[in-house]
Design a protein that fits this description.
- This protein is mainly alpha-helical.
- Among the domains are: 60 residues, no CATH class; 83 residues, no CATH class.
- The protein is 59% helix and 5% strand.
- A four-stranded mixed β-sheet has the order 8-5-11-10, with helices on one face. Strands 7-6-9 form a three-stranded antiparallel β-sheet, with no helix packed on it. It has a two-stranded antiparallel sheet with strand order 1-4.
- Helix 9 runs antiparallel to helix 10 and helix 37 packs antiparallel against helix 38.
- The N and C termini lie far apart (85 Å).
Length: 897
């Protein structure tokens, strides 16, 4: 062993020798010169110190080398590091000491960090350098790392501030803004950036900071976003500032941005952005052009532009359900004449056709089933609640078209059939969804039926009001709805719909009366209804929607929920947490929810066995059985909330999808039923091959509810995309499930969703380059998904009309360019896959795989558009939705200016 060690030592000693031989004459000369200077610095002659140190400094600074190797002077001086440190200790002249400390600081970069912790920073501070940038980028980067480490341990932080300021100044002047941001976030002094930001660098800094904010916790996240917003306002980037204000859901901040913006054309662009968010923004009375801006925010323009797009794409011709099913491609198995199990006019078959017809022709104001002259015939081909959904489908067909839709819907308000009348009331609400009208037809027509003797009419009126005024915070509508919650004649279904309607109207703002009314209803609910009622879970959801995106001020509500009996208490608290953190990507909350999903609550059979051993009475056993069922329902909500929280952030979404694979394999039955819905929520209207393949496997599951949810989820994932692969899968499923009416009904619904708006609409709750979450869209999706947690009793029962809550999420996936007079302006644009350019040097391309189109144009998930010509300037940084283009002045005019 000793001999072997000696041989290794000899090898190590011999290794540098060939390097000596390989060195050029120039390098040898440099090494000799540096060795001589070291001798002078470590020698006894004090007068030689300063000249020798200055010569050494100049040699180090002037050395040129490739970016991939260490400069030669640093290599040669590495062995003298200890000697120079000793020389520094002996020096008495302050100038010589500072020079020596400066050189040692640079040499410390090449030493092992474990042996010399933070010596680069230590000697830099001793050198009292004013300009650290003289030693180059690598030295500054080393200092930044050591400053960040030192900051956590040092007591007197003021000693580091001048050095930090010098480093930040160097970074900002040398296109290293990202490093500057990283350092200032580590030391929590982002304000230091403000005086160093100008027109050339503010956009890179703000873009980087706002994307970093997603990965930090409150309150740091809030302070970063607020800081970036103030920078945008300082540089008059009002559209970017408004995007942030919409992310924060701060109405007052949005008003302030409108107030500060002086350009009338940019104000109109801001109004179009607010209209996409479906916000009811009351501008100040002194606001210029208030009437014009309010008209834009009312969304009255959507219908006309949508019809123009449809004419441009030549898809105005109505589609029948049969054209969507394409049964002739399924073979003879599914043709009604050959399949006696599914009669031509079965109630379930007709109900499915009603929804498919509504989804496919949504927004086109034309169809071949219900809007035609003899549409009455189709109504009577359905039974009871089927009639309700059939009449309500008129609302989707005339979506956003208040003027054109009221007349055909109004005639059904005079029918003697309560179900059709109730459907017409719901249709009135759907038509007004997301659109504001000065006449307020929804309020005028629905108010008389809210407390009607007929429970059926109440359902249509109450839910219709909720959809018509979603997110508007209308006090008059809330005042109408609140008595329904406490009315003795209201059934559990009506109470649930009233709670949801109130929550939709006050979305994201905890209205004290609404919150207290829902809490009182929950606390007064009988135990039987709480445990076995199919509609009881909508009350906690309604409570959660009031706090959608709101984390502050929930303590009192949480305390009140603690008074509920156990199953409902856990369910309510999880619903509340799900809505509070929706879209935030908060990892800690996701972990909490996953912990709940992984727990095992005894099944009724297991309970029976344990109880029989202990000889307990039957009543106790029955009580436990119901408790078990509810606890598993709470787990299903926890699984769904993982997706709701993760959906706003790409990395989190991907991780959650992988975790759902495990939950789907090994989870509790209730959790497995929620998994397909959760997977769908993470890729709504984004039919990735891997996702639809996974859902296709679940659609053959032995558990009927898992299969139902998976089939419906396939529809959500492909919503509005006309995806050919998905359409083929669904046709195969229709063949596979031909004899199971429940499964076949779900397949038909999924087919209708896939062809939503003939492939022009999306259900995605994110817009503006996926930066902003649309609260009404999230609310509509959550109501639908929660109702699928009990698909057999709700969607396949009497409450299938809840599918119409998806109307809040429906919006054309388009880019429409307008001129300065808000008229459609066709221009050439390049459309391609969005490329992440955060922190990239220079001006990288923002899109890849480019196709050139003329506006209006459809955009898929993950696609981005940019102008193909230089004739116009867009007034918003994100080319999506309605974009106003400003004509560029001719070159001659620019030169004169």
């Amino acid at each position: 062993m000793v001999v072997a060690e000696k041989k290794e030592e000899e090898k190590e000693k011999k290794q540098p020798e060939p390097e000596q031989d390989e060195m050029s004459e120039e390098d040898k000369k440099l090494q000799e010169e540096l060795n001589m200077l070291v001798e002078k610095i470590t020698g006894p002659d004090v007068h030689l110190y300063i000249p020798a140190l200055e010569s050494m400094r100049d040699l180090i600074r002037s050395s040129t080398t490739s970016m991939t190797s260490v400069p030669m002077p640093l290599k040669f001086l590495r062995v003298h590091y200890g000697a120079l440190k000793e020389a520094f200790e002996k020096m008495t002249d302050s100038k010589a000491q500072q020079l020596c400390a400066s050189i040692i600081s640079v040499l410390a970069m090449g030493q092992e960090s474990s042996a010399t912790p933070r010596e680069c920073l230590k000697y830099c501070l001793l050198a009292k350098q004013n300009d650290v940038g003289d030693w180059g980028h690598e030295y500054v980067r080393q200092l930044e790392g050591e400053i960040a480490d030192e900051w956590a341990t040092v007591v007197d932080k003021d000693t580091l501030l001048p050095l930090i300021e010098s480093v930040i100044k160097f970074d900002m002047e040398h296109n290293a803004e990202i490093q500057a941001c990283d350092l200032l976030m580590e030391v929590d002094i982002l304000d230091m950036l403000t005086p160093l930001m100008d027109q050339t660098n503010y956009s890179r800094v703000c873009l980087y900071l706002i994307n970093c904010a997603m990965y930090v916790e409150e309150p740091e996240r809030g302070s970063i976003v607020a800081g970036v917003l103030s920078h945008y306002l300082r540089f008059k980037e009002y559209p970017r500032a408004l995007t942030l204000a919409m992310q924060l859901n701060k109405i007052d901040l949005m008003r302030e941005i409108f107030q500060k913006c002086e350009d009338p054309l940019i104000r109109k662009q801001l109004a179009y952005m607010v209209s996409r968010q479906q916000l009811s923004l009351e501008l100040n009375d002194d606001q210029k052009d208030k009437g014009e801006l309010t008209a834009i925010m009312s969304n009255a323009h959507v219908n006309d532009h949508f019809h123009s797009l449809a004419r441009e794409l030549d898809i105005m011709e109505p589609k029948t359900p049969e054209e969507v099913y394409k049964t002739w491609l399924e073979g003879l198995v599914l043709r009604p004449s050959y399949n006696l199990d599914v009669p031509v006019d079965s109630a379930r078959h007709n109900l499915a056709s009603t929804f498919v017809n509504a989804f496919v022709n949504a927004g086109f104001s034309k169809d071949k089933l219900v809007s035609v002259e003899d549409g009455n015939k189709w109504m009577y081909k359905n039974k009871q609640h089927g009639m309700l959904s059939a009449a309500a489908s008129l609302g989707l067909i005339y979506l956003w078209d208040i003027d054109g839709g009221l007349t055909p819907i109004d005639k059904y308000l005079y029918t003697s059939e309560d179900y059709i009348k109730s459907g017409a009331l719901l249709a009135l609400g759907i038509v007004n969804c997301g659109v504001r009208n000065d006449c307020d037809p929804a309020l005028a027509l629905l108010s008389d039926y809210v407390l009607h003797e007929s429970v059926t009419l109440r359902i249509g009126a109450v839910l219709g009001l909720g959809l018509a005024y979603v997110g508007t915070k209308r006090e008059d509508a809330i005042t109408l709805l609140l008595p329904v919650l406490s009315d003795s004649k209201s059934t559990p279904e009506v109470v649930a719909m009233a709670a949801l309607a109130c929550a939709l109207i006050t979305l994201g703002t905890p209205h004290s009366e609404v919150v207290s009314s829902i809490l009182h209803t929950l606390l007064d609910m009988p135990a039987t209804e709480m445990n076995e009622g199919h509609y009881s879970k909508f009350l906690p959801l309604a409570l959660g929607l009031c706090y959608l995106g709101v984390k502050e001020g929930t303590e009192a509500t949480k305390a009140a929920l603690e008074a509920l009996p156990e199953p409902m208490r856990s369910l309510s608290l999880h619903m509340l947490k799900m809505c509070m953190y929706a879209g935030t990507g908060d990892v800690l909350v996701i972990q909490e929810q996953l912990q709940v999903c992984s727990e095992h609550f005894p099944t009724p059979e297991e309970k029976k066995e344990s109880e029989s051993k202990k000889d307990k009475d039957k009543e106790k056993e029955k009580e436990d059985k119901s408790k078990v069922k509810d606890m598993t329902c709470m787990q299903a909500v926890a699984a769904l909330s993982v997706a709701v929280i993760a959906m706003g952030e790409e990395v989190g979404s991907e991780m959650a999808t992988r975790i759902f694979a495990q939950l789907g394999r090994y989870g509790e039955p209730a959790v497995r039923r929620a998994v397909p819905l959760a997977i769908a929520l993470l890729s709504i209207s984004n039919p990735q091959l891997s996702v639809i393949d996974v859902l296709n496997k679940y659609s053959h599951d032995l558990d009927e509810e898992v299969a139902h949810n998976a089939i419906f989820s396939m529809g959500l994932v492909g919503a509005g995309t006309n995806n050919a692969r998905l359409a083929t899968m669904l046709r195969q499923l229709a063949q596979y499930h031909a004899k199971n009416t429940g499964h076949l009904f779900m397949v038909r619904i999924a087919q209708g969703l896939t062809h939503l708006g003939k492939g022009t609409l999306t259900l995605s709750p994110f817009h503006t380059d996926r930066q902003v979450m649309n609260y009404p869209a999230v609310a509509g999706l959550l109501i639908t998904l929660v109702s699928f947690l009990g698909s057999k009793t709700i969607m396949l029962g009497k409450s299938h009309y809840l599918l119409y809550t998806l109307a809040t999420a429906m919006y054309p996936r388009w880019l429409v360019t307008l001129d300065e007079n808000q008229e459609a302006l066709p221009v050439t644009v390049r459309v391609g896959q969005a490329v992440d350019v955060i922190g990239k040097a220079g001006t990288p391309k923002t899109i890849a795989g480019v196709h050139t189109h003329t506006t209006p144009v459809l955009l898929s998930v993950g696609e981005r558009a940019e102008l193909a010509s230089d004739d116009y300037v867009p007034l918003t940084p994100v080319m999506e939705g309605f974009v106003i283009l400003k004509k560029k002045p001719p070159h001659s005019q620019e030169e004169k200016k």
